[in-house]
Design goal:
single chain, 672 residues, mainly alpha, two-stranded antiparallel ribbon
C-alpha cells in the first residue's frame, strides 16, 4: 500500500487552515447579539446584560403607523424614534392628557416610554413633542419578537385595539384603528405562527418522556431485529415484506373509513384550495379531500411495492443470501453498529462550526446611521454620525431631521468580501461533511472487506478490523477521500444553485430539472466508488472507474440495484413504522389499557411525527451499516470472480453459503 492523491491531501489541509482563519476573523468582528437582541435608534441592544438596557428587553416605536410592515421592522429601520422599554404599553394615553392629569401617576407611567434623557416633567408638551422626546400617544400593545406591536384583534368582523375602534393620535384628532393595520397587518400572521409554535412546544413539554420511550422501543427493536437476522434472515425478510404490505393496507383502510365517516357532515366537502393555509392543522382532518389524497398516495405506494415484488421475486433469494452473509460479517464486527455514532458526532461538529461561523460573519457589520425626515429634505437617506449630527448643516436646513440607526453594514475591504467568505464557509461545510461521510463509508467497507478476504473466517481477520480499517483510511487514503469529497462538494454547490434557479424560473422555458437530475446522478455514482476504494490501493478517480468494471457479475439475475433494494429497504421502513403506529394508537387514546395515561395534546401529530422521524433515523443508523456491508460484499464477490476461478490454485474467498446462491447458473461448467 502507498498513499494516494497526496496533492488533494495537502489541498485539504490548506483549506482547513484557511477555514480556521476565516472563523477566527469572523469571531473577532462578529457579534451574535445583533441577531438575538433588537436595536434602538442609537444602536444599543435591548435586554442585554451588563448595559443600561438590561431590564428593558422590548423595543417600542414612537409612531407605529409610519411603519409599512412588522416583517420589514425585523430587518430594516422604521422612520420613527425607537427606544428600549421594560414592558409594552397596556392602555390608550396621549402625552397631552397625561400632562394635564391632576395626579403625577399618569405622567410617570408615560415617562417610561420617553427617551432616557427626558427628566423635566414641567417642560411644555408642545416643546416635548417637537423635540421628539416622547411619543404623541401610546396604544395597547403586545410583545412580538421583542417588539411592541398594536394589540389588534377582530371581534365579529370589527377590527379593534384594546376594545376600542378609534383612538386619539395625540394631536387632537380621533382616528380609526384600521390605520394601525397598515403598520402591523402582517403581525397577526407572525403572531398566529408564534401561537402555533407555542402549542407545539407545550405538546413537547407534556409528551417528551413518552417520545423518549418510543425512541428507546425503536432502538431495542432495531437491535433485536439485527440479532434475529443473524439466524432467521430468510424468515425475517419475508415477514418484513408482508408487514410493509399490511401496514400500507391498514393505512388505506383507515383513510377510507375516515373518508366515509365524513360523508354528509357540514363543511367536509370544502376543497383544500378553497380552505387555503390554516395554522390549526386539525382543520384539514375534517375534510374528505384530505383523506382521499392520503388514500390515493398509499394505494400508489402499495401497488408499486407489489409490482416490484412480482417482477423481482427471483432476486429475493439473492437478497436473503446477502443479508445472511452481512449478518455474519456484522456479528464478527459488532463495533460497526456503534461506528455511525462517531460519524454523527463529526458531522455535528461540522454543522456547529459552519453555523457559528455563518452567524458571526453575518453579524460582523458596523452600525450605519442615516438621516430620517418626515418632510421633504435633500439629505434624507444619507449616512450620518450621531456625535456630530446636531452641529451639522442638516439640522439647519431640515429642522425635524434625525440621525437614526438604519442597519448593520460597512464599506471596508472586509465588509465588501463578506459574501465571498460566506460562500467559502458553505463550500467548506459541504467539503468537510462529505469527507466525514466518506471516511465513515470507507472505514466500514474496509472492515467488511477484511471479513470477505479472510480465507478462514474469522481466524484470518485482524484483531480489531474496524480500527485497522479506520487507520488504513487515514494513513493511505486521506487524499483520495479529500478528492472524492471535493468533487461531491462542487457538484452539490452546483446542484443547490441550479435548484434555486429552477425554483425562481418555475413555469418558464428555462427550467433546469434535467441539470439537477444529472448532478444527483453524479453524486450517487461517485459515492459508490468508496466500497471499491477500501480494499484496493487505488486513487478516487480510478476507484470510480473500477466501480464500472464488473460487467461479468452484473447479469440479469444478479442485477445490483434489485439486490440492494430488496436487501436494504424493508427493514428500516418497518422498524420506524412500528413505533409510529404504536405512537398513533397511544396518543390518540385508542389503547384502552393506557387511555387515561396518554397526555392531552393540542396536536397529537407532533409526538407521532417526532417518534416516526426519530425511529427512522435510529433504524437508518443501524441499517446503513448493513447497506454498506451488502454493497461491499457484493463488490468483493465481483472482484473475487475476476481474480479467481475456484481451482485449488486460485480458490474463491466467498463463503460456501454465498457461492451456492450467487454462483448458481452464472458460471461456465468448467468454473462451476
Amino acid at each position: 500500500r502507498g498513499c494516494t492523491d497526496v496533492v488533494c491531501c495537502v489541498l485539504l489541509v490548506l483549506a482547513i487552515v484557511g477555514y480556521v482563519v476565516v472563523g477566527v476573523v469572523a469571531w473577532t468582528h462578529g457579534d451574535p447579539r445583533k441577531v438575538i437582541y433588537p436595536t434602538d435608534s442609537r444602536g444599543q441592544f435591548c435586554g442585554q446584560q451588563g448595559t443600561p438596557n438590561e431590564k428593558k428587553p422590548f423595543l417600542f416605536y414612537f409612531d407605529i403607523v409610519k411603519c409599512a410592515s412588522p416583517l420589514v421592522l425585523l430587518e430594516f429601520q422604521c422612520p420613527t424614534t425607537q427606544i428600549c422599554v421594560s414592558k409594552c404599553p397596556d392602555r390608550y394615553l396621549t402625552y397631552l392628557s397625561a400632562y394635564g392629569s391632576r395626579g403625577p401617576a399618569e405622567l410617570e407611567y408615560y415617562r417610561q416610554f420617553c427617551v432616557p434623557e427626558f427628566k423635566n416633567l414641567q417642560k411644555p408638551p408642545i416643546q416635548v413633542l417637537k423635540d421628539k422626546e416622547c411619543p404623541a400617544m401610546i396604544i395597547p400593545s403586545t410583545p412580538l419578537a421583542r417588539r411592541c406591536f398594536p394589540a389588534i384583534q377582530a371581534k365579529k368582523g370589527v377590527i379593534m385595539v384594546g376594545n376600542e375602534t378609534t383612538y386619539d393620535d395625540g394631536r387632537g384628532r380621533r382616528r380609526n384603528v384600521t390605520e394601525l393595520l397598515e403598520g402591523a397587518k402582517k403581525a397577526n400572521v407572525v403572531l398566529e405562527t408564534r401561537q402555533l409554535a407555542m402549542k407545539i412546544f407545550e405538546d413537547y413539554t407534556v409528551s417528551w418522556y413518552w417520545i423518549i420511550i418510543g425512541l428507546v422501543i425503536a432502538m431495542v427493536a432495531s437491535f433485536i431485529f439485527i440479532v434475529l437476522l443473524r439466524f432467521l434472515a430468510g424468515i425475517m425478510v419475508w415477514v418484513m415484506i408482508v408487514m410493509v404490505i399490511l401496514v400500507l393496507g391498514y393505512g388505506i383502510f383507515h383513510c377510507y373509513m375516515e373518508y366515509a365517516k365524513l360523508k354528509g357532515e357540514a363543511g367536509s366537502d370544502v376543497s383544500l384550495a378553497e380552505l387555503g393555509f390554516q395554522t390549526d392543522l386539525r382543520v384539514y382532518l375534517h375534510l374528505r379531500q384530505t383523506w382521499l389524497a392520503f388514500m390515493i398516495i398509499l394505494c400508489i405506494v402499495e401497488v408499486v411495492i407489489i409490482l416490484l415484488l412480482i417482477f423481482l421475486r427471483k432476486r429475493i433469494l439473492i437478497a436473503i443470501a446477502l443479508i445472511k452473509e452481512a449478518s455474519r460479517a456484522v456479528g464478527h464486527i459488532m463495533t460497526s453498529l456503534l461506528f455511525p455514532l462517531c460519524t454523527f458526532f463529526l458531522l455535528c461538529l461540522c454543522i456547529a462550526y459552519w453555523a457559528s461561523t455563518a452567524v458571526f460573519l453575518s453579524t460582523s457589520n458596523e452600525a450605519i446611521y442615516k438621516v430620517f425626515n418626515e418632510t421633504a429634505c435633500q439629505f434624507s437617506g444619507q449616512t450620518c454620525k450621531p456625535e456630530t449630527f446636531n452641529t451639522s448643516n442638516v439640522t439647519k436646513l431640515c429642522p425635524d431631521a434625525q440621525c437614526l440607526f438604519a442597519f448593520y453594514g460597512g464599506e471596508t475591504a472586509y465588509h465588501k468580501y463578506l459574501i465571498v467568505l460566506q460562500f467559502f464557509n458553505v463550500f467548506m461545510f459541504f467539503w468537510l461533511a462529505n469527507f466525514v461521510i466518506a471516511l465513515g463509508q470507507v472505514t466500514l467497507a474496509g472492515a467488511f472487506a477484511s471479513y470477505y478476504w479472510a480465507f478462514k473466517k474469522p481466524d484470518d481477520m485482524p484483531a480489531f478490523p474496524l480500527f485497522s480499517a479506520f487507520s488504513r483510511a487515514l494513513r493511505y487514503h486521506t487524499g483520495s477521500l479529500a478528492f472524492g469529497s471535493l468533487i461531491l462538494a462542487i457538484v452539490q454547490v452546483i446542484r443547490v444553485t441550479l435548484e434555486y434557479l429552477d425554483h425562481r424560473l418555475k413555469g418558464t422555458k428555462a427550467e433546469m430539472a434535467n441539470d439537477v437530475g444529472k448532478c444527483q446522478g453524479l453524486e450517487v455514482c461517485w459515492r459508490l466508488s468508496y466500497p471499491v476504494l477500501a480494499p484496493r490501493n487505488l486513487p478516487s478517480l480510478h476507484s470510480s472507474h473500477e466501480n464500472n468494471s464488473f460487467p461479468s457479475c452484473f447479469t440479469p439475475s444478479l442485477h445490483p440495484f434489485a439486490v440492494f433494494l430488496l436487501s436494504s429497504l424493508p427493514q428500516p421502513f418497518t422498524l420506524f413504522a412500528f413505533p409510529g403506529i404504536l405512537a398513533f394508537f397511544f396518543f390518540t387514546h385508542r389503547i384502552k389499557l393506557v387511555q387515561d395515561t396518554a397526555p392531552s395534546l393540542n396536536y397529537y401529530w407532533v409526538p407521532i411525527l417526532t417518534v416516526i422521524v426519530g425511529s427512522y433515523l435510529i433504524a437508518h443508523g443501524f441499517f446503513s451499516v448493513y447497506g454498506m456491508c451488502v454493497d461491499t460484499l457484493f463488490l468483493c464477490f465481483c472482484e473475487d470472480l475476476e481474480r479467481n476461478d475456484g481451482s485449488p490454485e486460485r480458490p474463491y474467498y466467498m463463503s460456501p453459503e454465498l457461492s451456492e446462491i450467487l454462483l448458481k447458473g452464472n458460471l461456465e461448467p468448467s468454473k462451476s
